[in-house]
Amino acid sequence: MKIAIGIDVGISTTKIVGIRDGKVVKPMRIKATDPITSLYGAFGKYLYDNRIDLSDVEQVMLTGVGAHYIDKPVYGLPTSKADEFLADGLGAQYESKLQRMIVVSMGTGTSLVLCDGNEIRHIGGIGIGGGTLSGLSRLLLKTDDIKEIIALAMKGDISSINLQIKDISTNPLPGLPMDATASLFANAQGNASREDIALGLIGLVLQSIGSATILSALNSNIRDFVLIGNLTLLPQCELLFPVMEKIYDVRFIIPKYSEYCTAIGAALQASRIGG
């Protein structure tokens, strides 16, 4: 059985996945100094590690910002460009087993894709995402090492950064618990610890994304939101999104291969062009 390869080419990181007989074959990510090196390095390592011969590859589908740098067939194989928003939707549908939802692609910024069966379309987004976290961390923490930021945040106290309902009201407000956020960073002091700042920054990014997602669905009855992209790997997702679920009666879903959904969706587009 031949395999379709989906490759999500970033500027410095490439994610690659194969789809064979309707099943995902061992996703992989590779970092490099440029998209060309990243793509060819990822592709070669993926084939080698999974013992896939070039003759076994039916189609290569490229997506992502780095895909625009590739203007010829990869290793002489049939190569096409995949629509990124369609890839987000197809990958999220495949991984979540849902057909109707809003896909929240949390990358450098955040894009929102509406899925309703075969209808998949981009409906907007916000300029807040991993790039925001990195930039603000450079300014306030003097580092953009995500592992260091996460480690600091794990020791932080969010009440030292955010203004909460309990800070402004002696009684709960309708539908809002006392520890709900009233204002992001409004409690921050000049001597705030790096740990508290790190947690505040992660919370700012994730809460902003969550709120924008919920607002995007107000004119529909969609209550399922599938989160994909690198930010889904933040451990704070497991704390923040359940709180928003409870307040707004929605579901935030992080599928198994959330980081690779766009690459999966790219590979799934191979069938649409008939190989």
From TrEMBL:
UniProt keyword terms in alphabetical order: ATP-binding, Coenzyme A biosynthesis, Nucleotide-binding
Gene Ontology CC terms: cytosol
Keyword ATP-binding: yes
InterPro entries recorded: ATPase_NBD, Type_II_PanK
Biological process, per Gene Ontology: coenzyme A biosynthetic process
Keyword Nucleotide-binding: yes
Cross-referenced CDD domains: ASKHA_NBD_PanK-II_bac
Gene3D superfamilies with a match to the protein in the record: 3.30.420.40
UniProt GO MF annotations: ATP binding; pantothenate kinase activity
NCBIfam families (alphabetical): PRK13317.1 (NF009842)
Protein name stated in the entry: Pantothenate kinase
